[in-house]
Amino acid sequence: MTLSTQTTPSGFLLPxxxxxxxxxxxxxxxxxxxxxxxxxxRLILTYARHRxxxxxxxxxxxxSGNDWDEILKNERINRKMLPSHLSNILxxxxxxxxxxxxxxxxxxxxxxxWRTPExxxxxxxxxxxxxxxxxxxxxxxxxxxxxxxxxxxNIPILLLKKAIAVLTRLGxxxxxxxxxxxxxxxxxxxxxx
Amino acid sequence: xxxxxxxLAAFDRQEQSNKSFANLSSALSQSQVDHLHxxxxxxxxxxxxxxxxxxxxxxxxxxxxxxxQQMCSSIGVDPLAGPxxxxxxxxxxxxxxxxxxxxxxxxxxxxxxxxxxxxMIEMSELLRLVTKxxxxxxxxxxEDDIFxxxxxxxxxxxxxxxxxxxxxxxxxSVVKEMDEDQTAVLVLAREGGGRIVEDQLIQQKKWTRDxxxxxxxxxxxxxxxxxxxxxxxxxxxxxxxxxxxxxxx
Amino acid sequence: xxxKPSVPKITAQDRAILDxxxxxxxxxxxxxxxxxxxxxxxxxxxxxxxxxxxDRAVIALRRRKYQQSMLVKTDTQLENxxxxxxxxxxxLVEVSVFHGLKQGNEVLKQIHKEMNPETVEKLxxxxxxxxxxxTEISAMLANTLTTDEEEAVQEELEQIQAxxxxxxxxxxxxxxxxxxxxxxxxxxxxxxxxxxxxKVPVLVE
Lengths: 193, 249, 205
What we know:
The structure holds 3 protein chains of 3 kinds.
Chain A: E1 2-3, E2 6-7, E3 13-14, H1 30-51, E4 55-57, H2 69-72, E5 73-74, E6 79-80, H3 83-95, E7 99-101, E8 109-112, H4 117-130, E9 137-139, H5 140-144, H6 157-169, E10 173-178, E11 181-186
Antiparallel strand pairs in A: 2-3, 4-8, 5-6, 7-8, 9-11, 10-11
Helix pairs in contact in A: 4-6
Chain B: H1 8-53, H2 55-60, H3 62-74, H4 87-93, H5 98-117, E1 120-122, H6 123-134, H7 143-153, E2 161-165, E3 168-172, H8 180-191, E4 195-196, H9 198-205, H10 209-222, E5 227-229, E6 238-240, E7 246-247
Helix pairs in contact in B: 5-6, 5-7, 9-10
Chain C: H1 12-50, H2 54-114, H3 117-144, H4 147-174, H5 191-204
Helix pairs in contact in C: 1-2
Subcellular location (chain C): Endosome membrane
Region (Disordered) (chain C): 176-205
Family (chain C): Belongs to the SNF7 family.
């Protein structure tokens, strides 16, 4: 039996370790578990990037038919990740600063940082300028639900705000707040493309 | 134009001038060879300078050493294949012999794969990785080379050893001795693609349940030589030895 | 943009626009919600029909109809809002275009002030004079040489050429040949002087 890489229906290349049955069990040896956790974190982040998934919940390991089936389960070898295992991995991800608990003060769901706020800031500014929306006042809804899908579609508000904060520091964005809510305006800034 | 001297002497003259030209041309090509030599020397001294300037980094920093080796192989210089026995390494770092240098590469691989295989690597896999690391064709490393290199490593007390497990040569880079029982487990696991359960040991080795359980749990918890699969369909608790599994990269 | 974090001030206009857009978002989100309800009521009505409960299906459809009318209402509201927003934004663009035109006009005026007809005329006159002067010189130069003089020039040129060639030849003959040293090593001493002369043609070839 050779452990091989597999391509999922969504076109994602699973690493060969995903075919190893013990990968789906939490390892009692802490050193071994640390290695396994690193593999899981890398897998989760690359998959999230591939599918543009922003959140991961402990329940995703409990229920079937969600976005994470392809990696939290391996039907060929009849293994799946248990919720308690996933919960620990989420915890490790938050510690490594590649995810944050969202909403805060609970440990069941996270927002994934498969791009750093700085990278998101760049993507956001690129999108605003390429769609001719510089110097226009926009609501967050304009960004998360644009008429034409962009890579920022469905971006969690939490991440969006962080990205805007990065741009604000660079003088490339300005947040406008009124009683009804918030909006943002982007500028070409220095060194504009 | 005036051409003088048509006669027998002219032949001699012709011969004479041919000779002179031949001398001239060999002098010319000699100077080209000299030039090339000096260029090579320059390159060699630049490489030597670089290597000695960064000697400590090359010796101590695995990722730097890896980058240096990649650089060498990309410009077609095998750091182990220098002008004299021992290669560049020997010349530049005062290290004694070729085998020892190969040893450095073996250690490099054993250490970097340890997390995946628990410190046991099959000889053929090691050979493949060493060849890949050296990245130069036509300079084949053989099993024997590795065997010899590991011998030279022994005085260092790093615990590197070639062991025979179930008829297969494996290189062990963990300091812990593998006892007889663990070796037996490894042999059995190999037959099952890496998987092993208590019952196998009880039935095939006539061990008591306690003994089987102890060996496996020690390998799992104490030595980190195997991984646990708690979702095994048959026994509910199976042990997997990464060094006995077939991985595709 | 000017210097570093110099972002424009937030004006009352900006706030008004944001307010309108947020209202628009609320309507959009509301519509999304209603659409989901509509789909669900439809599914419920189908289920009831399949189960033979006609009256229940009718109720579901009635509810659906009501929600549908709401959707139409919000549609017109949304349209009004969006029109308002785009009118305002367009007016802002118009204002900036107006500013641009005004500035352009100023600049143009400035330029015109510097370019009054008299200076231009004077400049043109001067340019004309210079051009005429240049043509005159060219014409003069072309006409001064007769055919005879031209021939003399050519002859002189040929003569100079011949001299140059002569000089080069003379130098070559006197060149010492490179390999003269070698024959010294060879056994035949007397031929050294002869080979000295014989070498020259070989080199020239």
